[in-house]
Amino acid sequence: MNGGGMVMDRPGGPWKPVDQTFPALSHTLDTEVCIVGGGFIGIVTAYLLARRGYRPVVVEAGRIGCGAVRMSTGTALSQHRLRSAHLWKRHGESVARAYYDVHEDALSWLERTCRRLDARCDLKRTPSWLLAENVDHVQQLEEEAEAYFKLGMDGRMADKPPVPFTGLPALKMNDQIQLDPVRFCSKLVRWLSLENIQLYEQTRAVDIVRGKHPSVVLENGKMIRARHIVCATHYPLQHLSSRLQLERAAAGVFTMPETMEEGIFTTLSDPSWAFRSLSDGKLLVSGGAERVSRKTDPHVLRDELRRWVKEHFPEAAEEKIWTLQQVRTSDRMPLAGPVEAGKKDLYTATGFGPWGLSGGVAGAQMIADHISGMRNRWSYLFTPARFEAKQELPNVVRHAASYVKGRIQRRECQSLEDLQPGEGALVRQEGIRTGAYRGENGDLYMVNPECTHAGCEVQWNRVNTTWDCPCHGSCFDVEGNVLEGPAVKPLERFYTMEKRK
Ligand SMILES: Cc1cc2nc3c(=O)[nH]c(=O)nc-3n(C[C@H](O)[C@H](O)[C@H](O)COP(=O)(O)OP(=O)(O)OC[C@H]3O[C@@H](n4cnc5c(N)ncnc54)[C@H](O)[C@@H]3O)c2cc1C
Ligand code: FES
């Protein structure tokens, strides 16, 4: 049987999964708010609404808290590379200030909530450092520091950051946050379940019907009719894709002979790398992000990560490495709020790049405020309605071009005989292009490599042991089950030669 609804646990990630499990939804129901996606933003939105007396229903395709949040590095920041100077130049002082304030407010909310729920998620206020690796970087940091000063932000240049590999000045911002984001989600989930909020796992939404009677259509054919639907699926199910870009990055945990200095560190290099220590003293590194395309090779990303760690922390020993995706918008500002201005049927929260924990809290607050009719003074920053057709055109064209490329470009096939245990590749079987994976015990898994979202050909990801789509980032396990959308249907599974006989 082709797996259909069952979703396996995602590979990778430094955090232990949420400690509760929930049933699948097997009947049709009516509710005021349905949240699709039980990840970080979906759970925070549910919590905010439930505290205001709403009874949201959450449906999660896999396990709650096991998506991108489980693979993240667990930092919540207001220091977003060179954003302050950039926003000031591009949009003026008020937008630069609001962008900082909305993230600072999110950090305070995280800390307050952690305290209120006694979350014990290793949340710690700690400095965040932007590291220069050459004199141009220093100049960029000085410009950013000037914006900090003019905006009254809590940060300044420091002569020497506490890291072993750069003697150049760095830009320090005080009181940023590191935490175990899944343990934080666990605590919210426990609170929600004690309040009898309905949470469902292994329940995949396959469609959202808009209009007078909005509803979420589930893979098993059941429906959830709701006045408000929040799509918190990391990459949205079916709307907005021309405004979004996907990047794939690598991350890993490394053991260190000595505990490193506390703090969150991000290099200004391109690609950029970020690192922090875990509560047990291990080093957590992520970065190397590049735009997802047919050329993206997770194996190369993994090697880049290894090379960077070896160069900067020669004594670090690799424990595990994984790759993950982040979603950005064409104007680098997240999208959170009603998908269409003036409508209250469908909301989205996406495009947070590497800052989905601080930005995600802010986005969840904007959505919860909109649903409950409260004013949010920052909602204009993330509003999906900000895009105009004229401004959108180049993105639509770029998106269409990369999609067409993804559909027509074909990688070379390998021979099935050469496929070693633990390896996957595109092979030609009786003239048909096939995605084949040979398990460690020699079992063959074969799928149709045509992505069920919009037909691009998936590529083998040797690091995560998944099939990944270069067009909009869907990921599938070796049996073809969807691990990450926007695809909602599994890859067609081909029977192996042995079974056919
Ligand atoms: C290398 C790297 C490191 C990062 N580190 C950080 C960090 O330190 N700090 C930070 O702020 N951000 C970080 N991020 C970004 C951050 O991980 C994400 O922005 C954040 O986790 C997004 O939360 P989310 O709720 O949107 O997504 P998720 O946590 O992925 O939740 C989405 C959920 O929706 C579910 N879902 C999907 N489709 C369906 C469907 N059809 N039906 C039902 N459910 C569905 C998924 O299974 C998933 O559980 C990092 C990103 C990268 C690439
Ligand atoms: S074609 Fe869109 S994710 Fe594969």
TrEMBL record:
The keyword Phosphoprotein does not apply. GO terms for molecular function: 2 iron, 2 sulfur cluster binding; metal ion binding; monooxygenase activity; oxidoreductase activity, acting on paired donors, with incorporation or reduction of molecular oxygen. Pfam families: DAO, Rieske. Residues 411-501 form the Rieske domain. PROSITE patterns: RIESKE. Keywords: 2Fe-2S, Disulfide bond, Iron, Iron-sulfur, Metal-binding. One of its GO terms (cellular component) is cytoplasm. This is Rieske domain-containing protein. It comes from Alkalicoccus urumqiensis (Bacillus urumqiensis).
